[in-house]
Amino acid sequence: MGIWQRVLPETVNNDYQGSKVAMYGLVLLMFPLTFRSLVHLLKDDSGVNSIATIVLFGGDPDPNNVVYLFSSLWGGQQLVFVCLLAIVLVRYRALIPMMYALLVAEMAFRFVSGSLHPLTPEYYASRPPGAVGTLPMLIYVVTMLFFSLSSRKPQAAQPD
């Protein structure tokens, strides 16, 4: 079976053929992704000031509300993705490689967005967790994608 057939299988079922490391790695990944989603969605500043240390902007009307709105909307989108990850883990494990491929794409878009709209140090008090954690997360997700694409060896029949 080719790579594309593993990422986008013809039949979607719970028959996952990749490494169990990748399956449990996805479970592990759901914890920080859920936390991040809920912070962006529910926190009064959507984590922009309190966690990412982005400075408060001045003006009338308050421009910070627009930043919080878009960050909160992003948190909602992230939470939908986490729910999709949970559904895949419970019911459609054959899609685990596809979910890792989507996570790799999302991480790549973070780098593109950061290049198109860079925030220089005057925009934040200290380096935000997203700026620090994106590269290690990308490495983790690419590694897990590799494991999810590897085939498990069939187990030998046990003698009676």
Comma- or semicolon-separated keywords:
single chain, 160 residues, mainly alpha, 61% helix, elongated
Low-confidence blocks of residues: none
- Portion in strands: under 5%
Class by alpha and beta content: mainly alpha
**Can you give the mean pLDDT?**
92
Tally of distinct domains: 1
Q: Topology as H/E string?
A: HHHHH
Shape: elongated
User: From the structure provided, what is the oligomeric state, counting identical versus distinct chains?
Assistant: single chain
Helical amount: 55-70%
Discrete helix count: 5
Please provide the count of β strands: 0
Largest sheet: none
| Gyration radius, in Å | 19 Å
Ends apart, CA distance between termini = 32 Å
Brief synopsis:
The protein has helices at about 5, 20-40, 65-90, 95-115, 130-150. The protein is mainly α and about 160 residues long.
Per-chain topology:
Layout: H1 3-7, H2 20-42, H3 64-91, H4 96-116, H5 129-149
Helix pairs in contact: 2-3, 2-5, 4-5
Notes on the protein architecture:
By secondary structure, this protein is mainly α. It has one domain. It contains five helices and no strands. The longest helix has 28 residues, at 64-91. The mean pLDDT is 92.
